[in-house]
Amino acid sequence: ESLFGTMKYTPAFPSKPFESLYAAREWVYDFVHWYNEEHRHSGIQFVTPAQRHSGAERSILVNREAVYQAAKQRNPERWSRGTRNWAPVGEVWLNPENQDARDKAA
């Protein structure tokens, strides 16, 4: 359901039914590519799943931290608090409460 919601509300979602099964499959293929290779996910610090899986996440986040710190040094009045936390998030679960219940049952 979560993935369907993401698909349904993406700007590229068609407003009319697909003309054929092939057209539907082609759209889903393109969507999956966009989702994994281009879409920056807020739950994983605005990197793509492909960047996370390839190991590029760390260098990207280190660079972002450096950019934010440099910007804060140039214009400290823009930050009333610290900068965004760009630390890697570690493990991510879709339904962590369900995983906890499964762990207890095991």
Name the helix and strand elements from N-terminus to C-terminus, one letter apiece. HHHHH
Average pLDDT rating? 90
> β content, as a range?
under 5%
**Rg, alpha carbons:** 19 Å
Largest sheet: none
Helix residue percentage: 40-55%
> What's the shape?
extended
What is the terminal separation in angstroms?
Answer: 26 Å
Low-pLDDT windows of residues: none
Domain Integrase catalytic: 1-49
Pfam family, one: rve_3
Organism: endosymbiont of Lamellibrachia luymesi
InterPro entries: Integrase_cat-core, RNaseH-like_sf
Structural summary, described in words:
The chain is mainly α. The protein has one domain. The longest helix is centred in the middle third of the chain and has 18 residues, at 57-74. It is extended, with a radius of gyration of 19 Å. It is 55% helix and 0% strand. It has helices at 2-8, 21-37, 49-54, 57-74, 96-105. The chain starts with a helix and ends with a helix.
